[in-house]
Amino acid sequence: MKLLRALKRYSVxxxxxxxxxxxxxxxxxxxxxxxGGTRAAQGEFPFxxxxxxxxxxxxYAPNIVLTAAHCVDGSGTNTSITATAGAVDLQSxxxxxxxxxxxxxxxxxxxxxxxxxxxxxxxxINQPTLKTATTTAYNTGTFTIAGWGAATEGGGQQRYLLKxxxxxxxxxVCRQAYGSDLVPAEELCAGYxxxxxxxxxQGDSGGPMFRKDDAGAWIQVGIVSWGQGCARPGYPGxxxxxxxxxxxxxxxxATL
Length: 256
Ligand code: 4AZ
Fold this sequence. Notes:
By secondary structure, this protein is an alpha+beta fold.
């Protein structure tokens, strides 16, 4: 169990190194992205953010990015993170790049659950924000995942934003994979348990898992957090349960 978490931390560090060293252009017949997905269209998920430490995020407000606690180092002044938004192609001349000013890591975060953090930006990004779930109403169904992370387990980071859909996995089924490593009140699982093949992967951490609400608007229900490898049968992806933390996130955002 500690081993799993150690692997998770290692993979994030590896993702940073990969992001710095080998941002791969993807060919037109690209292999499955995110792991098992396809390329997102320009403007399809305008709230998506790539963070320079090799994580994803979503615009919570024009000047605040919601990401994972394990993507950041603690709380306080931080001008070292660059957020890139507004383009599916990270190398697009029209991509908007904004520096951070502050980071707020979830209070009480110790590597188990509570995997959320906020990053304040030096200026607002003129793109739509992603609404966050405030109740459990949307915590089941089919979810969309997106990111610039690895398209295969151990593979390189992506230049183009990739997307896929994954079904909800119950806590009971998820516990069969992860036992007491899963914190069911704070984590949601998703994936094709029997087949594998589609999942978030290294470098997607911090990005949103989302679906449509009853009004047809995208709503964020999860934050990419961890899992055993990527897209393996029997091992769904684990996501921070946003609805559990909605009020804590709102309170924290108000202090930034
Ligand atoms: C990571 O290290 C990571 N398959 C993200 C998601 C998953 C595993 C690892 C889930 O960023």
